[in-house]
Amino acid sequence: MTAHVQTPAETPVLAQVRNHIGHLTLNRPAGLNALTLDMVRRLQAQLDAWAHDADVHAVVLRGEGPKGFCAGGDIRSLHDSYKAGDSLHRDFFIEEYALDLCIHHYRKPILALMDGFTLGGGMGLAQGADLRVVTERSRLAMPEVGIGYFPDVGGSYFLSRVPGELGTYLGVSGVQIQAADALYCGLADWYVDSSKLAQLDERLDALTFSDYPLKDLQGVLAKLGTQTLDNPPLAKLRPAIDHFFALPDVSSIVEQLRAVTVADSHEWAVNTANLLETRSPLAMAATLEMLRRGRHLSLEDCFKMELHLDQQWFEHGDLIEGVRALIIDKDKQPRWNPPTLAELDRSRVDQFFEGL
Fold first, then answer.
1. Which domains are delineated in the chain?
2. Using only C-alpha atoms, what is the Rg of the chain?
3. What are 40-61's pLDDT values in tens digits?
4. 242 carries an active-site annotation
5. For burial by CB atoms within 10 Å, which of 63, 108, 189, 268 has the most?
């Protein structure tokens, strides 16, 4: 009897070494390459092997298909694990964060191609890379508050280090940004048009490496791309964002967005207030607190804080209800607990951070 050999189409992570570069491809295009625990483990094993392989000088991380690099964690499987009383949802976060941390500290340069949707867990993979590349198709976000969760995977570290209050705005609102804003926020390093991605591969295949692989890769990107794009939309909104998202709590933010006009941003402010009122009050408040703490913490301590919240969130947060409303029943009517910011008790937020 012959064993079943997985075809490339069934392998959730493809790995290949060409010209001293390890290529890792997330291969679940139908699910926008959302991460499963199996994928996390495969990525970790491959990175561990290449770390000790003298023949591999650099790593390129990408997603299969034009739609997305990675749309986050496979949140439905985590919901099902919790409901069934399994441990998958606990193991997943522990191993996913360890992988993200490994990427941040990896001794060889990693180039992450954030082409298409790069959300949540996809941001966790890409933000630790040395060279974060966006295209005109890139859509970046930490959209967790929309499903009653908080921006994890190191979000308390990388969002809190975005200039001014832009990272606070991105985390508390969960909005998506495109290439120009990604560069402006420092969440990407290079812009390359998607029509040049094939050329990028050709140049990587033909690259002659020096003793400084990171510089070699930067040289390739410099010929194909740029590090800034004109007129990032967030630059115009920056004075308003820096004003509103520095306020003490989410209630004040929403109140002021409706009442105060900064520069000519009133329409944006009202739309933002409306958006925030659809999000989980508890998740937004925990996110705000987490990002403010994260500013003063090391990368390791940010991940520890997120894990500390995770371990209580399935029981006491809004995630299970958010997944039900938006992913399972799709009624888009989440019953947040509490339903409004006015009913949110500060002690409820503080409890999550006790014992850190």
1. 8-141+190-224 (3.90.226.10), 233-353 (no CATH)
2. 20
3. 999 999 999 999 999 999 999 9
4. no
5. 63
